[in-house]
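Review form for a predicted model. The reviewer records the input and the model, then writes brief findings.
Reviewer: anonymous (R2)
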Amino acid sequence: MALPWELCTKLASLHPEFRCDIHRSFCDIHPPMALPKNPLEISVPFGASRQVVHSRYHWNNDNRSEDAFVIIQRTQHGKGRVIYQDREHEVPEGHAFIVLVPEKSEYGLPENPQGPWELAWLNLYGELGIQLCREMREAFGPVIPMTRTGEAATLFFSLIRQAEQRVSVDPFTASTQCFSFLAAWTREASTPVARTLDPVQAAKLICERRFREPIGIKELAAETGLSREHFTRLFSARMKTAPAAYLRRLRAKEARQLLDRPGMTLTEAALRSGFASVKAMNRALQSLAKSSRTRRVSLPK
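Model under review:
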């Protein structure tokens, strides 16, 4: 018997070893979002922005589901592997794999893992999406870089957030979002972007592109290759503000613009601007308003 979606996601958050079993349960239930019927539609009804798995995590995609779909899974930390066409491919940090279901392929942790595998994933449905992913894999292989500072990763996590929050999206808007993600990923895979050598500029770029996501200082520091303490000191000295305050300011500005729109609720504005709660958003908006008043008073007359 399949478990309800809400119960599955709740249980999946409780214990890492239980997550692969939960994933198996909620992927077997009837999706909460209708699957595409138009051949031009693409949808992402399932996804997870953070999942930590251990040694028992393993999937065989042969005869896994009656519905055809694509799995795109990115390594956040650690390392995984995918076996495709009888060849094993490593999935290191900053890379994502593509597998189609059903097909003869497998993925999971290496035989002797050095630690857990932290990952993010989405399931993509629709004839067009499946065909585009198949062609991407033929062009670049089953494992493709997806740098965290790139447009593709931003769109990838945006699609996942919509799936996690069960956001209702018009089918053709959803299709456009999915196509934009795949197009951005293809462009990045075709022309790799050079990494910046300046960690502060790199962090600033990550903040500006991903402030709507629940990113924290630890993750920002990891992206720059610095310790959290050293990164915070370096960023604060250069930007004259702490990285957490910089993120809050970006989110507050976004929330203020969203709240100017007719019909926008506080809850939706908080979610779409990256705040964990309406209360946190209100505090940041008050701080932004106060700093704006202070600057106006200090201007020369």
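Findings: Residues 1-33, 192-196, 296-301 have pLDDT under 50 and may be disordered.
Further findings: The two ends are 72 Å apart (CA to CA).
Recommendation: see findings above.
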